[in-house]
Design brief:
alpha/beta; binds beta-D-glucopyranose; about 375 residues
């Protein structure tokens, strides 16, 4: 089969020929890949950071945002069958005896750090014609999601961020966050970074009835801003307003979701958080970024305003299922919005163009591996 592999030490990506993976256990499932998305993590991996090779191998097949068709199932597989449309989760559990998250089936909160991630950390990914994995790592999609199901991975990350914020707020007894099905209605929320994660966040927040402001540095005419406004978002132009000045123009926010991944922006967003506010950070920033900031005022505000800042990564099955539900709903409610987030489709042969050329109008780019 064909696959897109990287050699991190050489900062190289290649379209390679490899053996097809085969079903080896009774609970395994073989799928034919249909589409696989590209994200910032893939680009970092190609540039030699973030990626970890599978044990004893020289190359890593990248890709972690996939959608596929089931073509073969092991003898004990009971939840999916050939012909089903599926997506696969990314993280695989560690076997550390004291990692209760992984033992309990929640590798997204692995505490040992020994988890593996397909296409990122120690396991081959999905940018390949065929994939085999245990049935427990697949989530079934309705066939109607064929044209945008590839968005489930980033959408699951967003679902986890929003759900965690609601859980934290309600657990600490804030009465206006008590009912998860209504608590976001009319809440003032800010999404920083309107790439695919940011737009999906805005879409899901709007489905919940939140008022959403979005912060980015692209022009008002960029497709992402048009789509953002179409779902009812209000754009804050980062070319005119710095992150630390947002509050002086727009007052403070109940919830901030950061999807920028730039340390200097992220840290300054916190100043836009209101009393009892909560800020979810999803962007993986560059490590070792030194900055001069007013720590005194940051801590002063955190304490005197009962604020919460938390980081969130990856997602478990519960949030993948919500992603499926909400993407389908959003696509209906907001005039095919999920489909329109996929702006570019490439053949795997076009990998140079797909990874290294960019335009202001791109949102999500995907590789098409099969029909
Ligand atoms: C992926 C996550 C992954 C994280 C850290 C992100 O790009 O979407 O699934 O856990 O990178 O490797």
């Amino acid at each position: 089969m064909k696959a897109l592999s990287i050699i991190p030490s050489q900062k190289t990506i290649l379209l390679t020929e490899r053996e097809d993976p085969q079903i080896q256990g009774p609970y395994e499932v073989k799928v034919k890949t249909l589409e696989v998305g590209i994200c910032g993590t893939d680009r970092e991996e190609i540039m030699g950071t973030h990626a970890e090779l599978p044990l004893g191998e020289k190359e890593l097949i990248i890709g972690h945002e996939m959608m596929a068709l089931v073509i073969e199932t092991g003898s004990n597989v009971s939840t999916i069958k050939p012909g089903d449309l599926v997506v696969a989760t990314v993280r695989r559990p560690c076997d550390h005896p004291e990692c209760y998250s992984c033992k309990g089936g929640h590798p997204d909160t692995c505490s040992s750090g020994l988890y593996l991630e397909r296409g990122i950390k120690g396991l081959h990914g999905f940018q390949a014609q065929f994939v085999v994995d245990h049935e427990m790592f697949f989530v079934k999609l309705p066939q109607s999601m064929r044209s945008y199901g590839v968005l489930c991975e980033p959408a699951a990350i967003v679902e986890k961020a929003i759900d965690s914020a609601i859980e934290i707020q309600s657990c600490r007894g804030l009465p206006d966050w008590d009912d998860p099905s209504t608590c976001l209605r009319g809440k003032k929320t800010l999404v920083a970074g309107l790439g695919s994660i940011g737009l999906l966040t805005a879409i899901i927040l709007r489905l919940h009835g939140a008022d959403v402001w979005g912060y980015d540095i692209v022009s008002q005419d960029a497709l992402r801003i048009q789509l953002f406004k179409e779902i009812g978002g209000s754009y804050i132009d980062g070319k005119k307003i710095t992150p630390s000045n947002i509050a002086s123009h727009y007052e403070s926010f109940d919830l901030i979701v950061e999807a920028v991944g730039v340390a200097s922006v992220t840290i300054n967003l916190i100043s836009a958080l209101g009393p009892n506010g909560i800020c979810a950070m999803t962007g993986v920033t560059e490590a070792n970024r030194m900055l001069e900031i007013n720590v005194g005022s940051l801590i002063y505000n955190l304490v005197l305003n009962n604020q919460v800042i938390f980081g969130t990564v990856n997602a478990g099955k519960k949030h993948w299922k919500r992603a499926v539900r909400d993407l389908e709903k959003a696509n209906t409610v907001f005039n095919r919005i999920a489909e329109r987030l996929i702006t570019h489709r490439f053949s795997p042969h076009e990998f140079q163009r797909a990874f290294f050329e960019s335009s202001e109008d791109e949102i999500k780019k995907v590789f098409v591996w099969g029909e």
